[in-house]
Specification:
The structure is a homotetramer. Chain A is mainly α. Chain A contains 5 helices and no strands. At the A-B interface, helix 1, helix 2, helix 3 and helix 4 of A face helix 1, helix 2, helix 3 and helix 4 of B.
């Protein structure tokens, strides 16, 4: 059972051993997160309504990990704590999407009745 | 100090209390990760060479958390363990980017000499 | 001087000669536009504040063309006329961004005074 | 019947009346194209296998136009001719995807037999 801190350490050590922090402006990291998200999305291009993922699981694992690694790097350079911001955002989402209104609905909170 | 499992539990509980898993096909989650990555990127649109982020820190925190929450949901529905796939991908990256070749360079591994 | 119709014909002929329309759901085309936009964006990853594009011009041309080709395909399958929707959107943008308020400012219309 | 040049003129005039060219670095335009592509993609989020687009046609028109307008602006600042690059890219695609190999298949050219 890894703590988030242990994972973050793995991620930042990889970067620091290569002296790459100098390239990691928040803007270029935000670009990188978008690019890796696109590589993950590419797995599903032309899949139509075919939702079987077993054969694509390794590829999904790889691309999803890339997105999360860059997210960790962004958190690090901007001084954000991953656990804190996720916990806080979930609290905000709970307020935006109260169970009694949002149960079983995929509507955006601005359109919930 | 949260473990990754505790964070994952927070994320999936939020979803399950609202009965939203039915909407979470891997394809639509991959789309959602891309959309949230774009919202994060939007923070840096028109910022030119201005790299000051302090005033944008709350917005970055919020959007970055959204990306990571959807990553957690993707890991859950595809049966992937977040710690495992990050650790594994970092190992692959270490092989692709050996310290002696990649030190201080932003080149893609295909262009490293 | 090509008309938009002539360009559209080149684009749809390429598709139809290969019998590809069957794959072109609007959802998968929207994904494809996003993926090609990411490939264009990748040209600028890690460029920091370096805005020189001459050496990247061929790559930009190629990726930009890909985005526009998929946009043409999307217009075709959804029955939209490219000239019409651009002209209409520019009219809406003129209303949102009146010259006297927006002159020389990069603010979003919701923040213009 | 608009020529591409007439459409480009509409697009660049809108920009120049507002003195916005100063903000339009290729990097920020590439970001903008990605952001607009994401807004178009958002129309299809959570749509599952539901491919009916009639009710979403106005929204698609608007977001698709935004992507193309930014593509036009990118072509302008990088000195690329829209008709030329599309014609050239289609020629490259014809070479990559010969009709006899690609007919009725959605495979990437690297996987065609």
């Amino acid at each position: 059972m890894n703590t988030v801190e242990e994972l973050m350490k793995q991620i930042t050590s990889f970067r620091d051993e290569r002296n790459w922090k100098q390239f990691h402006t928040p803007k270029d990291l935000a670009i990188s997160i978008s690019l890796e998200a696109a590589e993950l999305l590419e797995v599903f291009q032309w899949s139509g309504t075919d939702l079987i993922v077993e054969s694509k699981k390794d590829k999904i694992a790889e691309e999803l990990a890339d997105v999360m690694i860059y997210c960790g790097l962004m958190a690090d350079v901007t001084g954000l704590d991953v656990s804190d911001i996720i916990t806080k955002k979930l609290a905000e989402n709970r307020a935006k999407y109260p169970v009694e209104k949002a149960y079983g609905k995929s509507d955006k909170y601005t359109e919930l009745k």
